[in-house]
Amino acid sequence: MPLPVSGLTEYTIVVDGQQLRYRMGTQAWTTFVWPNPSSQPGASIRAKDYDGRDFTVFEEAGSFGVEKLINSARRTELGNDIFEMAWSGDGITISVRFRIISGSGSSTTTGQGRSTNPFTGMKLPEEIIALGVTRTARPISDDNAVDGDTPNAGSGTNQPVPTGEQNTSNVTPPARVSTVVPNTNSENSPPVQPPTDTTTATDDRSAVTEQQEQTP
Predict the structure, then answer these.
(1) How far apart are CA 184 and CA 36, in angstroms?
(2) How far apart are CA 20 and CA 15, in angstroms?
(3) Which of 29, 68, 88, 153 could share a disulfide with 93, CB 3.0–4.6 Å?
């Protein structure tokens, strides 16, 4: 309920788009619904004097504008859940009588007109997106392999794949390689003789003949 203020011609209280404009005439209760989802959230109190000057006593945008409006007032309890609320700003003071009527889904309030639920007016997001989620890689086996994937070595027999250190420590030195040439002759062929070097010298040492024979 608005109360007259000397020196002013009118003042306007806005709660979530709902407006109370009082011109120092008949006093009547005005109902505000909060929160009001059909309008822009916020609260404000503006006044005008006889010279036509405008004053902004209080202004707060957003979902918590009404709560800040109530908490910033000087409150005096009058009984029957009625409080006298006074706001001072821009050199003037606006006073009204205030009463909270809780709806079926509203939370209870304290004697100071404050909600006991700290989450009043808050909403859960409609969708939650997780960022930075990592997945632990696991070897692809015959059981969990999909089309186009190749199972890791050792996955079918549950044998671990040796690491680089294990491969280094368990390396077996290569054995000597012997090349065996098959004998294409008959079984009675004489054994292969190693190559011989023959040097023939003449009596007069005028010529030297060197002959080397190699048998495959």
Answers:
(1) 106
(2) 9
(3) 88
> Contact, 16 vs 66, CB < 8 A?
yes
Give the start-to-end residue ranges of the domains of the chain: 8-99
- Rounded Cα distance, 216 and 214, in Å: 6
Q: Which residues of 162-188 are buried (b: 16+ CB within 10 A; e: fewer)?
A: eeeeeeeeeeeeeeeeeeeeeeeeeee
Contact, 43 vs 79, CB < 8 A?
A: no
pLDDT single digits (tens) 25-36: 999 999 998 888
**Tens digits of per-residue pLDDT, 111-154?**
444 455 555 666 666 666 655 555 555 655 555 555 555 555 44
∠ Cα 65 66 71 (to 5°): 100
Question: Residue 35: what pLDDT?
Answer: 85
Q: Are 68 and 43 in contact (CB under 8 A)?
A: yes
Would you state the structure tokens that stand for residue 115, as one six-digit string? 């909600």
* Length of the chain in terms of residues written: 216
